[in-house]
Amino acid sequence: MRENFRKQINKLESRVIMMAQAVGTAIQLSVKALTERDMETAQKIIRDDDLINRQRWEIEEDCVNLIAMQQPVASDLREMISIMNIITDLERMGDHAEGIAKIVQLIGKEDPVTPFVDIPVMAEKVVAMLDKSMDAFSRRDAKGAEAICGLDDEVDALNDKVYHHMIQCMINQPQTVTRATYQIWASRNLERIADHVTNICERIVYLATGSMHKLPNTSKY
Amino acid sequence: MAFTTRVSIENLNLFYGDFHAIKGVQMQVPKNNVTALIGPSGCGKSTLLRCINRMNDLIEGTRLEGRIVIDDQNILSPETDVVLLRKKVGMVFQRPNVFDQSILNNLKFGLRIHRQMRSKTESMDLIQKGLEDVGLWDILKDRLHQNARQLSLEQQQRLCIARVLLLLPEVILLDEPCSSLDPIATMRIEELLRVLREKYTLVIVTHNMQQAARASDYTGFMYMGELIEFGATQGIFTAPRKELTENYITGHFG
User: Fold this and answer.
1) Is the separation of the CB atoms in B160 and B97 below 8 Å?
2) Pick from A1, A65, A69: which is nearest to B187 by CB?
């Protein structure tokens, strides 16, 4: 029954996962470019963000067409709605990776205020969150999705740590104000990325259970 | 719109006596696609469909102007062999019109009329192929001598489609083929249309807009005898170009 429709939904799902992989790669590369002050990679991330944006529009257009033509209901409808929300979050996450790449360009070849320690850890955590969220998405795993939100707190804690550390540096050495601000911005981008993964998890819970609610986390932002 | 035209309808006008039922319709029916005709009751969609295999000839006082071209031939010309035309352009009706006879006889009927009966094995191969194409072979292969009226309505409609397929048509016209079926049977027939379009060109008239959206590749919207808009179904149902189409498909009509 409605085999063709099911096939089209499955294809969309795979494209969402592929888009998430592209976003994950952009995040990892942006932080690598930051720690290595690699202008070329930064430039590539900025350029490739267009590809992520395009994927978002293409998937969204296909969702609109499927809704108009196949009139999905129940779990099929929830899937369309969830996908449309998930790709919006993924696209924003791509923008944050691009944001980090732009910070790399602002910093240039200058040394950081203090070596990057926490920011690479944050990047690892947000990419792990993203991977887990896509795993939960493909398995319709509401519990798995809820569990991911706990990791958001760890990212928030690291962001707090970077923020306070940089403020301290600015107080002690006012000449570091500009560079320390850039480091706060980079950290803030990663913290926002984790928030978007939380949004994705909320949509997975909706997809799996039909319940639309905010997932608890202790985010201060 | 990039497609190969299978049926070209050119400036078609149809009159029932003084009543101008089809007004200057221009439409290219795309090959190996499902084309749906939608519009309110009495808009001329069934009349247009029936022009494609000259079924309106049977209604007295019908006058046609314009051309319908299939394989470089204007099928409206008096020289057209209508029996051959209806073999090439098969038709499935609103209610399954199976004969009160065995499933096998129902299937053999068209072959007989068109003198297509070959050797017994050849005919049986053809019948098996037809039933396979409509997903009935496995269900019916051991019951071919059963009366066709004992089948469910959906199976009867599938049988009618198989009967058309046996004549190896190129175009299949379907006039509200699901209107007597329940929603599940309807969806199964819609899936069947998707499969059939790989081999045939299908034109379906439906008063069910959702069905047109689900089952067709191209849609024509008709209103008061005119073809208001024709285009890819996706475009018609997401961003129609004409206000009249928009009002009709959104239900804001009048």
Assistant:
1) yes
2) A1
Burial class, A38, CB count within 10 angstroms (exposed 0-12 / middle 13-18 / buried 19+): middle
CA B108 to CA B163: how far, in whole Å?
8
- Interchain proximity B238–A68, CB inside 8 Å: yes
How distant is the alpha carbon of residue B175 from its chain centre?
A: 6
CB contact under 8 A, A71 and B210: yes
Name the region of A50 (left: φ>0; alpha: ψ -120 to 50; beta: rest).
alpha
Alpha helices, DSSP H, located in A37-176: 39-70, 74-107, 118-139, 142-172
According to DSSP, the β-strands at B19-30 and B5-16 are antiparallel
Specify whether the CB–CB gap between A145 and A208 falls below 8 A.
yes
CB A155, CB A190: distance < 8 Å: yes
Mark yes or no for CB contact A3/B191 under 8 Å.
Answer: yes
Which residues of chain A lie closer than 8 angstroms to B214, CB-CB? 5, 69-71
Contact predicate A192/A30, CB 8 Å: no
| pTM, two decimal places | 0.85
Distance of CA B58 to the CA centre of its chain: 18
For the purposes of burial, counting CB atoms within 10 Å of the CB of B178, is it exposed (0-12), middle (13-18) or buried (19 or more)?
buried
- Set of chain B residues whose Cβ sits within 8 Å of the Cβ of A5: 214
Q: Is A20 exposed, middle or buried (0-12, 13-18, 19+ CB in 10 A)?
A: buried
Q: Helix (H) and strand (E) counts for chain B? A: 10, 10
Whole-angstrom distance, CA of residue A35 vs CA of residue A166: 16
pLDDT tens digits in sequence order for chain B, 254 residues long: 689 999 999 999 999 999 999 999 999 999 999 999 999 999 999 999 999 999 998 888 999 999 999 999 999 999 999 999 999 999 999 989 999 999 999 999 888 877 666 777 888 898 999 999 898 999 999 999 999 999 999 999 999 999 999 988 999 999 999 988 888 889 889 999 999 999 999 999 999 999 999 999 999 999 999 999 999 999 999 999 999 999 999 988 75
**DSSP secondary structure code for residue A215 in this structure:** P
Residue B74, phi then psi, degrees to nearest 5: -80, 105
Between CA A96 and CA A66 the distance in angstroms is: 30
- For residue A68, list chain B residues with Cβ-Cβ distance below 8 A: 213, 234, 237-238
